[in-house]
Amino acid sequence: MSENFIFSRFGRKYENQTGIGQLMEDLGNLRPGMSMLGGGSPALIPEVEEAWREILSKFTSSNFWDSLLGKYETPSGKEETLEALASLLSSETGTKIHKDQIAITNGSQSAFYLLLNFFSGHFEDGSFRKIFLPVLPEYIGYLDQPIYSNSFAYSLGQVKTTGEDTFRYELDPSSLENWDDEKNPLGCVALSRPTNPTGRVASSEELEKILSFSRKRNIPLFLDNAYGYPFPGIVYSEQGLFHKEGMIQGFSLSKIGLPGVRTGFVLGDPEIISALNKANAVLNLASGNLGQFIALEFINSGEWLRLSRDIVRPFYRKKRDLAISCIRKEWKNKIRYSLHESEGAFFLWAKFSGLNRKISELYPILKENGVIIVPGKYFYPTPVSQEPFAEECVRISFAREDQEIQEGIHKIGKVLSSFAE
Ligand SMILES: Cc1ncc(COP(=O)(O)O)c(C=O)c1O
């Protein structure tokens, strides 16, 4: 490109490589023998792959091919899939949900891009409103999405020690009670449940408090269920699906094993869904067909429940138990660490103390020694990402082969112990 071309402010946001962008490239350029505990991809589970093969084998008649590959769907999505999802969500939430409350998008990531920008930034009344993250850290993928910089407001939550080497970030009710709306006007609230990176599953009591906070301000609460209910249902605690009026829910086909089809769903009020569909038409004309066809079969056959409950959740629970016991074996008495309670998703969030280097400085050394993790600071918006505590944490994925998990944890222990004071 000519050096004379000048990017707009919007373009400049994407012109330079971001830290996380660099990291994502690292994840794609692995040396053989590397322990890849950094990525966000789900594991390849044979029983799940078999289910996709079975569904795809049904799409062989020319009828299917014509409509699957040969035509654009409408921007709102395939009618039958919308109906199937509305019926599933009606029974799962216990409220009557109509198909005009559901949008199908190219992955839930793109839905969040639109929704977060619908409800943050400059408003008609002259205000600049932010996205509130009630308990940090939060999903990395939200942080670069707002068009305007400085679009996040947050509460750090409270750190509660739950065991000898475990803790939990809890909602800090006083931060909600004492919120200064003059100083920090809000346009929406967002949280992932289970939370990527911590594996935290916000309790229904916490969600009630957050919902009442958002209702008081007449702003939507986005709940991102990418790892949660109804599928893939990677929740190890007793918590269930939480849905109430005024909420906008995000769902995804990715974490049950289909990240490549790029299909997500949004449940919300019809006016919001209608705006989302219009924006989807501008950006994409329509969402991809394959995920919509698979979803229809997946929901109508009941496979969503069998895979989530009987295969995927037990699979990750076993991996989680392996990773935690391996950490206890490898790290105890070598480094000072504490793990966030693992209540869902497929990550562990580890907090270290007594290291004489920042985690982001140790990242290249870990990489050199054959293990990739994600430094914690990327899960905090600026300026929190510069705080010392953000440099004491890492996210570790356990959606990997057992041996890779064990070797990776061993390598982390070995490297970090040489920087322990
Ligand atoms: C919490 C969370 N939400 C949303 C997404 C986006 O997923 P997708 O766009 O594949 O639906 C991810 C992906 O890693 C995630 O971790």
From TrEMBL:
Residues 70-412 form the Aminotransferase class I/classII large domain. It comes from the Bacteria. SUPFAM superfamilies: PLP-dependent transferases. One of its GO terms (biological process) is alpha-amino acid metabolic process. GO terms for molecular function: pyridoxal phosphate binding; valine-pyruvate transaminase activity. It holds the Pfam family Aminotran_1_2. Its cofactor is pyridoxal 5'-phosphate. Transmembrane segments: none annotated. One of its GO terms (cellular component) is cytosol. Keywords: Aminotransferase, Pyridoxal phosphate, Transferase. The keyword Ribonucleoprotein does not apply. PANTHER family: AMINOTRANSFERASE, VALINE--PYRUVATE AMINOTRANSFERASE. This is Pyridoxal phosphate-dependent aminotransferase. It comes from Leptospira semungkisensis. The lineage of its organism: Bacteria, Pseudomonadati, Spirochaetota, Spirochaetia, Leptospirales.
